[in-house]
From TrEMBL:
Presence of the UniProt keyword DNA-binding in the record: yes
PANTHER family: PROPHAGE INTEGRASE, PROPHAGE INTEGRASE INTS-RELATED
InterPro entries the UniProt entry points to: CB, DNA_brk_join_enz, Integrase-like_cat_sf, Integrase_catalytic, Integrase_DNA-bd_sf, Integrase_DNA_bind_dom, Integrase_recombinase_N, Phage_int_M
Keywords: DNA integration, DNA recombination, DNA-binding
SUPFAM superfamilies: DNA breaking-rejoining enzymes (SSF56349)
GO molecular function: DNA binding
Residue ranges annotated for the Tyr recombinase domain, each copy included: 204-378
Phylogenetic classification of the source organism: Bacteria, Pseudomonadati, Pseudomonadota, Betaproteobacteria, Neisseriales
One Pfam family this sequence matches: Arm-DNA-bind_3
Family membership: Belongs to the 'phage' integrase family.
Residue ranges annotated for the Core-binding (CB) domain, each copy included: 92-173
Name assigned to this protein: Integrase arm-type DNA-binding domain-containing protein
Length: 389
């Protein structure tokens, strides 16, 4: 058949059901005509500028083999296309799976900050390599490409990142977006390729003020103005965490009964924590809470409806020329003082810090929160901080 010379409209047989079809506009393409269950059927095999005569003959031969096996080639092609569309619908990129995972789990996380940490870590380190890939295509080599550059230099971040990638891929497997082993699994898998975190991680403690210097520091702190100074003062006197202090609302404080009830969402252990307030702390809080509604933040941020930034106290320390300290380090100052200078039991000091008991047997019997004993301890601490020398 001289394909190039055929110009008239019509169908021109090449034999075996293969035809060159020419439309009224002169467009040429290959079609296969065949009978199936007494009905004539026509199947397109492609235009001549894409499919040559030789290719068309090969395609026609493959279709005739299907017919010989009792399979309708047109139905087989339609089924294949539907399966491809279904695979595409089931397939998700790594970014899409991460976003869906975070959305599904963030309601159970302690705070919006935790969700932001997930997003920021994945965006910074994982998305450049894995983001636009289908989760079905993620391999051990690709996961290693993400982790190896930071495994030693930023091991804590890398370890958390690995765990987050593993969690997302597990979620994708359960949802049917991927199958097989998880390439980010640690035990019996990546632990053979990467050094143990415990072998390389450097433990860096938060800079803490020696307890013998706390009185002088508090005296200096009281001369500072602004919410950041008062927030740091409250943090020191209660041995609370930064997140609990800056997010505190007026309604959390019962100044008459000298109790600060921190809700679960503001606690690291996601468990309500009652803090006894010494009279000195009540005096600090009265002017801060006065005239405010229960839902108002005690320490307001720069914008309406926002609380003090978690960097505010660190910036305050820098203004005080105490770059050697961190807000969190004052919890260590309190704990050192309690252990070195008082006879208060260890478990009372640990309860004041809202530390979870690691001994499961001990924790099972520790039903109360030792509030009365903690009240005595925190009163002694406030008196020590405010003593005059």
């Amino acid at each position: 058949m001289k394909v190039a010379k055929v110009t008239e409209r019509g169908c021109y047989s090449d034999g075996g059901g293969l035809y060159l079809q020419v439309t009224r506009d002169g467009v040429k393409s290959w079609v296969l005509r065949y009978m199936r269950q007494g009905k004539a059927r026509t199947m397109g095999l492609g235009p001549i500028h894409t499919v040559s005569l030789a290719d068309a003959r090969v395609k026609a031969m493959e279709c005739r083999k299907l017919l010989l096996a009792g399979v309708d080639p047109l139905q087989a092609r339609q089924a294949e296309a539907e399966e491809a569309r279904a695979r595409q619908a089931r397939s998700k990129t790594f970014v899409q799976c991460c976003e869906a995972y975070i959305e599904a789990h963030k309601a159970g996380w302690r705070s919006a900050k935790h969700a932001d940490q997930w997003t920021n870590t994945l965006t910074t380190y994982a998305y450049p390599e894995l983001g636009n890939l289908s989760v079905t295509d993620i391999t051990v080599d690709l996961v290693m490409k993400v982790l190896e550059p930071i495994w030693t230099a930023k091991n804590e971040t890398a370890s958390r990142l690995r765990g987050r990638i593993e969690a997302v891929l597990d979620w994708a497997t359960v949802r049917g977006y991927r199958a097989g082993d998880n390439p980010a699994r640690w035990r019996g898998h990546l632990d053979h390729l990467l050094p143990q975190p415990s072998k390389i991680k450097r433990v860096e403690h938060h800079a803490a003020l020696p307890y013998v210097e706390i009185t002088s520091f508090v005296t200096s702190l009281k001369s500072q103005e602004g919410f950041a100074a008062r927030a740091l003062e409250l943090l020191i006197l209660t041995a609370a965490r930064t997140g609990s202090v800056i997010a505190a609302t007026v309604g959390e404080f019962d100044l008459e009964n000298k109790i600060w009830t921190i809700p679960p969402g503001h606690m690291k252990g996601n468990k309500e924590h009652r803090v006894p307030l010494a009279p000195q702390i009540v005096s600090l809080l009265v002017p801060l809470c006065e005239g405010k509604r229960n839902e108002d933040f005690v320490f307001r941020g720069r914008r309406d409806g926002e609380h003090l930034s978690n960097m505010a106290m660190l910036q305050l320390l820098k203004r005080m020329n105490r770059n050697d300290l961190t807000a969190h380090g004052f919890r260590s100052t309190f704990r050192d003082w309690a252990g070195e200078c008082t006879n208060h039991p260890r478990e009372v000091a640990e309860a004041a810090l809202a530390h979870t008991l690691t001994n499961k047997v001990e924790a099972a019997y520790a039903r109360g929160d030792m509030f009365i004993k903690r009240s005595l301890l925190m009163q002694d601490w406030a008196s020590y901080c405010y003593q005059k020398k």
